[in-house]
Write a structure and sequence with these properties.
The complex is a heterodimer of chains A (272) and B (121). Chain A contains ten helices and ten strands. Chain A is α/β, with parallel strands linked by helices and 272 residues long. In chain A, the strands form two sheets. In chain A, strands 6-3-7-2-8-1-10-9 form an eight-stranded mixed beta sheet, with helices on both faces. In chain A, α6 crosses α10. Chain A is globular, with a radius of gyration of 17 Å. The chains are: A alpha/beta (272), B mainly alpha (121). Bound molecules: fe (ii) ion (FE2).
């Protein structure tokens, strides 16, 4: 089936872990936007949620770092962080090994991905799931893009991964919802935590909504690092969703910098 | 200088509750199997969050190590700032890519030079 949903949202651990420290007004508006995203996804009656995330050395490390990895298990656990620190209780999320295998097999015709039969979700996936499928009743297929330990896959490869995912979704009978999750500009977990380059974010989101390959790929990691921090490397996850949406028009449902969450909090989707 | 092994220890510590209790019981014994310098061993057993940041440890690993030591978020950020103040810019790893200029200077530069479309500086 063609993709039934394609969107992006933030995943910073402060969103749940430091909730009580945030200004309630933008925080609650952001949570409401996340809730609306959940409603929109549920309305498409998906069989699985493919979540393109940027994890943070929870499962993948520099001893054997895949550029791209796809989960291939019937269930996953999380969060790997201290539940109290993250504000999310321990959970088990359902997967779908068979569907994973079929998607991976198709994707690999054009993009080499690693697969993982074991995966402990960190905040990069646990935070979105907390909002999007809080009862953990929708099978999840996690995908990771290395955005932490350079060398990183070049942006055109993130786009190509999105194209491959679209093709793979088209080829299976299941209804697939796709969500990418990452920060835009941010300096997470560093002395600069809380800094957010709103102008840079809005320009990136403008390009994202256009879904235009050329302008989205016209970033370079050195410039991204200078203007948007190392957290900006996570634009790869957004770009993968753009590649999968193949020129659809996007819409930003929510954007607001919330410094204690260390990121410009974002909810956006494509009109497929 | 073995940033890789410092981070590997922290990565394994984050994942492994047995290693966490071993570390709590005897910090030095827990880090001994890793190929570390005296400076790195001191930073990991102290713990010295500021020095670990200066050495180049990624914050995504370091913040969990701070949480393991019950260090509050604001204190964690301050310890890193103090580490830069005391030891100088980050030595290695992703944060050394363009040099670390400090939070205030960086904020000022971003303000005085807002990013342009196609900015490839
Ligand atoms: Fe992240």
């Amino acid at each position: 089936m063609p993709l039934v949903y394609a969107g992006v949202a933030s995943h910073a651990p402060g969103i749940t872990g430091r909730a009580e420290l945030a200004d309630p007004e933008p925080r609650d508006a952001f949570y409401a936007a996340y809730q609306a995203m959940r409603d929109a996804i549920e309305a498409t009656e998906p069989d699985a949620l493919v979540i393109v995330a940027a994890e943070h050395f929870a499962n993948f490390f520099m001893n054997n770092m895949p550029s791209f990895a796809v989960g291939m298990a019937d269930s996953y656990t999380g969060p790997i962080e201290d539940p109290e620190w993250l504000g999310i209780d321990k959970f088990e999320a359902p997967g779908n090994r068979d569907l994973s295998q079929r998607l991976i097999t198709e994707v690999m015709n054009t993009v080499d991905v690693a697969y993982a039969e074991e995966w402990k979700f960190d905040h990069g996936i646990a935070v979105p799931l907390h909002f999007l499928t809080p009862r953990f009743d929708l099978p999840v297929i996690p995908i990771n893009i290395n955005c932490q330990g350079p060398p990183l896959a070049p942006l055109p490869r993130a786009w190509a991964l999105g194209e491959a995912l679209r093709r793979a979704a088209d080829a299976v009978p299941e209804r697939i919802a796709l969500v990418g999750t990452g920060g835009i500009s941010h300096w997470p977990a560093t002395p600069d935590s809380g800094k957010i380059n709103e102008e840079w974010d809005r320009e990136f989101l403008r390009r994202w909504c256009d879904g235009d390959r050329e302008s989205l790929l016209d970033y370079d990691d050195q410039a991204v690092y200078a203007e948007a921090g190392q957290g900006g490397f996570e634009i790869r996850t957004f770009i993968t969703v753009s590649g999968a949406a193949a020129g659809a028009q996007g819409e930003v449902h929510f954007y607001h910098p919330i410094p204690i969450f260390a990121v410009g909090c974002t909810v956006a989707s494509y009109r497929l | 200088m073995s940033l890789y092994y410092v981070q590997k220890f922290l990565y394994e510590l984050n994942r492994d509750e047995n290693l966490q209790s071993a570390y709590h019981q005897d910090r030095l014994a827990a880090v001994t199997p890793y190929q570390l310098t005296e400076e790195e061993i001191g930073a990991l057993t102290g713990p010295d969050i500021g020095l670990l940041y200066h050495l180049g440890v990624n914050g995504q690993i370091l913040m969990h190590f701070a949480a393991l030591h019950q260090i509050a978020w604001a204190d964690y950020l301050q310890l890193m700032r103090d580490g830069i103040e005391e030891h100088g810019p980050v030595r290695e790893g992703v944060y050394a890519m363009t040099g670390y200029e400090g939070t205030d200077a960086h904020a000022q530069r971003l303000q005085s030079h807002p990013p342009q479309p196609n900015d490839q500086e």
